[in-house]
Amino acid sequence: MPRSPSSWNASASCRLEWRPSRLLGAMLALIGVLAVCAVLASGLPGWVIALLGPCSAAQASVSLRRYLRRPPRQLVIPYGEAAPTLDGVTLARCQVQWRGPLAFLAWRDAAGRRGHLVWWPDTLEARARRELRLAAEGLAVSARGAAMAT
């Protein structure tokens, strides 16, 4: 009988890289094209269409460029009571939520500023997804605190 691969090391930390999703970039581009088509198909006067068409195309391209140029981020969720870090900055509160194949990370840093990241299916492979699920369970347990028997 073949040996199973070594199991996940419970004392290892979860290290994940976030990067912009090409899938989301394609959807943003499609929304931009549809916005221009909506302006062209509207019943507005020609001079309004001539103003709004290029404006909607410019806004879509700026949004797409801004999203795709976001730098990669490095998330580390250590095992145990240690606080998670994002790009070396300690996160005061950190929460992972799942909605279908999407993973949402919401946090507050030490200064109280909020932040969030979303991992799309094309940016988080199956192994990393499992790793994040296990680390997120550990985060939830450490946030609630240890239960005490009375």
From TrEMBL:
Source taxon at top rank: Bacteria
Membrane-spanning intervals of the chain: 21-41
Keywords per UniProt: Membrane, Transmembrane, Transmembrane helix
Keyword Transmembrane: yes
Protein name: Toxin CptA
Species name: Pseudoxanthomonas winnipegensis
